[in-house]
Design goal:
The complex is a heterodimer of chains A (237) and B (507). Chain A is α/β, with parallel strands linked by helices and 237 residues long. Chain A is built from 8 helices and 11 strands. The chains are: A alpha/beta (237), B mainly alpha (507). The interface between A and B is medium-sized, with 22 and 19 residues.
Chain lengths: 237, 507
């Protein structure tokens, strides 16, 4: 579903080699130390950063030359996913039509998406009057109305408390199963990966490694880089 | 404990200086039958408002398009343009007037396109100054947008118009009123430009009319009337645009981070070109003329060297006085939140009370029986310090507020206070903002012609005064050389201030 072969990204002295295949309908966690290039990997797939070598394929299509809006994917950031001067409903509606010209069917889809993330009652509120979790729900509702097969999330719930994080993670997993989405999610929390990810893509030492099954990743204590990254973390037990 | 008395002391000095300016003028006006508010006063007010409105609109509107073009990442020649645009920001008014006359004056390269004397010339010089200032401030505002906003816009497939509506527009709606307010205030209070390019009673602002009614007509009643209207206007503007108005003007130069994402968006080279052209047309030719005609005529004679010495002496002394007063006021404002507005209001005295009024009051108090050179020097330094004070406070206040928040409790718990705190904690931590404040005040004072003109040069001939004198005696070529020397001294200082600012940035 997402495929980069022999990819190379260079910015100043920073280099990132990428070999990556993410199967359709899977949820892949991107883990690795700070500054290793996890967000850069997502930005490359989304079309915000160019590769120096290699091609990016998404949903069977070569998207290397396509601008972000034409790629079959939606990206959710850690914050600033909303426009502060627009209410929640309008923020979601921008995902359907950037000119905000919606027909009745499209309006219904916006309403449904807001209902699915539990924001129906807050549809008329502006982001500044909502909590951090509610603002991320706006981003998830917009992801739903955009209805693209691939979703990239860059530490989407990092600023939330543990209970809320688990709740939103479960909702995200529910959406993924229901719609058959392919998800790539950067996280700093190994327990998140363990809870929901089918596989883990480890980014470290200038390379994004081919994804491995989640269980294998957490068992790979013989791998010095993975062991150093996980440190004393003991599977949450 | 040393802070509040320091702040109070500084505030009392400033208030005493203002009182010494206002009271003699008012008492003289009342003994002559009260302030005059006649047709001439209203004509000056009308012209002030008209020229300041025109200047503001013509500077800010093109600046919005220009700043948006410059905010894009892939823009060829962008760095060079930003560098040229930094020139007018530090240029003394008299040098700008000279440069604009060199281009648009009757014998200039583009002579005859725009009448250089009267309203059009005044507005032209104001746009030359303020278009780059507005561009820089708007660019700074746009750079405060989170980078995700532009990525989100790209992902949602926004057109350029939609980016303006949902990303840039909301930022501008917040910041543009303060930016336009600052520029309006600077244009309304402009003295040197109007004095040199204004023609007679039909093209005079309140500020210049005060000077003329005192020095040419000796009519203190009318001067008092004009002064009252000017004070009312400044107070209204400051109240409308808020106290943060002056902060942006004094900020360190913009450092553009990686630039914003705009790949694949509409509005490419053609649109950028159209946005940049008016800015280039107004700003670049005068800068080029200044350098080229100046280079031909630099002669280091005795008059020039003596003027350089006076400028440096006045700049240095005014910088010290303004920074000492500003440190007291900003420190007090940072530590006494309840009195914050009051201390910052005192700092704005030099913007609210016209320098022409203060100069006249001081002249009536101290100078009636003829002033010695030493007294004149002190008066010029004091007036320059007051005029620079608002900007010095704008530089120091954020740093002092941060410092108070970071160190006050720690110092209290360790028992560090008084001189020890000033020596070991505050001054080392504030070295860069203090140096920036000193250089900023020095730059303003070295380039200032207002104070010297108001007191009458009587033996002190600074570089700007020499430029003015050489212009008046139709020795334009000599003036060009002097102006270039003045510009170089200013840019050396500005370069220092910029580099001190850059090192201060942790990124």
């Amino acid at each position: 579903m997402i495929r980069i072969e022999h990819g190379l990204y260079v910015y100043g002295g920073f280099r990132l080699a990428i070999d990556l295949t993410v199967p359709r309908g899977s949820l892949t966690a991107v883990l690795g130390p700070s500054g290793a290039g996890k967000s850069t990997l997502l930005a490359i797939i989304a079309g915000f950063e160019p590769l120096r070598q290699g091609r990016v394929q998404v949903a069977g299509e070569d998207v290397t030359e396509l601008p972000p809006a034409q790629r079959p994917l939606t990206m959710v950031f850690q914050d600033n996913n909303t426009f502060a001067h627009l209410d929640a409903w309008t923020n979601v509606a921008l995902g359907v039509s950037p000119a905000l010209k919606l027909d009745d069917e499209q309006r219904r889809r916006v309403d449904e998406a807001l209902a699915q993330v539990g924001l129906s009652a807050l549809a008329g509120r502006k982001p500044g009057e909502m909590s951090g979790g509610e603002r991320q729900r706006i981003a998830l509702a917009r992801m739903l109305v955009r209805n693209r097969p691939v979703v990239l999330l860059d530490e989407p719930f990092a600023a939330l408390g543990p209970g809320l994080r688990a709740e939103l993670l479960a909702e995200l997993q529910g959406m993924q199963k229901e719609r058959g989405l392919t998800i790539l999610m950067v996280t700093h929390q190994p327990e998140d990966a363990r809870a929901v990810a089918d596989q883990v893509c480890f980014v470290d030492g200038g390379a994004a490694r081919p994804p491995m099954a989640t269980a294998d990743f957490f068992a790979a204590r013989a791998d010095a880089a993975i062991a150093a990254y996980l440190g004393g973390w003991r599977d949450g037990r | 404990m040393s802070v509040m008395p320091g702040g109070l002391g500084a505030a009392l000095w400033v208030l005493a200086a203002v009182a010494a300016g206002l009271l003699p003028l008012l008492s003289l006006a009342f003994s002559a039958g009260g302030p005059t508010l006649d047709g001439a006063v209203w004509a000056a007010l009308r012209f002030t408002l008209v020229q300041a409105s025109l200047s503001t609109v013509l500077a800010v509107v093109p600046a919005v398009a220009l700043a948006r073009a410059l905010a894009r990442r892939q823009f060829r020649g962008r760095d060079l343009l930003l560098r040229v645009f930094a020139v007018p920001l530090a240029l003394p008014a008299i040098v700008a007037v000279l440069a604009v006359v060199a281009i648009y004056g009757t014998s200039g390269w583009l002579g005859g396109i725009i009448p250089v004397y009267g309203l059009s010339g005044i507005v032209l010089v104001h746009v030359f100054f303020n278009l780059p200032l507005a561009t820089r401030l708007i660019l700074e505002a746009l750079a405060s947008t989170p980078p995700e906003a532009h990525r989100l816009a790209a992902q949602l497939g926004f057109t350029d118009g939609q980016v303006f509506a949902h990303v840039d527009g909301p930022v501008l709606r917040n910041r543009l009123p303060a930016i336009a307010g600052l520029i309006f205030l600077l244009c309304a209070a402009s003295f040197v430009t109007v004095l040199t390019l204004g023609g007679g009673p039909s093209a005079t602002t309140l500020e210049v009319a005060i000077y003329q009614s005192l020095r040419m007509d000796f009519d203190p009643a009318r001067a008092a009337g004009l002064a009252l209207v000017q004070v009312a206007l400044s107070v209204t503007l400051v109240a409308l645009a808020g106290r943060m108005m002056l902060a942006p003007a004094a900020q360190a130069p913009v450092r553009l981070r990686q630039g914003r994402f705009c790949g694949g968006r509409a509005g490419g080279k053609g649109a950028d070109g159209r946005a940049v052209a008016p800015g280039i047309a107004v700003v670049v030719p005068p800068v080029a003329a200044l350098v080229m005609s100046g280079l031909d005529h630099v002669t280091l004679n005795g008059a020039l060297l003596s003027a350089l010495g006076w400028s440096l002496a006045i700049g240095g002394a005014a910088a010290l006085v303004a920074t000492a007063l500003g440190y007291g006021l900003a420190g007090a404002a940072a530590r006494a939140p309840r009195w914050r507005g009051w201390f910052e209001g005192v700092a704005l005295a030099g913007v609210i009370v016209p320098p022409a009024v203060m100069a006249t009051g001081w002249f009536l108090l101290f100078g009636r029986n003829g002033t010695s050179i030493a007294e004149l020097f002190l008066l010029v330094v004091a007036l320059n310090a007051l005029m620079a004070l608002p900007f010095v406070v704008a530089v120091l206040a954020p740093a002092l507020t941060r410092l108070a928040a970071a160190h006050d409790r720690l110092c209290a718990s360790l028992g560090i206070s008084g001189w020890a705190r000033l020596r070991f904690i505050d001054v080392p931590a504030l070295r860069r903002p203090l140096a920036q404040a000193l250089l900023l005040a020095g730059i303003m004072a070295m380039g200032d012609l207002t104070a010297i003109t108001l007191f009458g040069s009587g033996g002190i001939l600074t570089l700007p005064a020499l430029v003015y004198q050489q212009m008046g005696h139709y020795r334009g070529h000599l003036a060009a050389g002097t102006a270039l020397v003045l510009a170089l001294v200013i840019f050396l200082s500005a370069w220092l201030a910029e580099h001190l600012g850059a090192e201060d940035d942790p990124h």
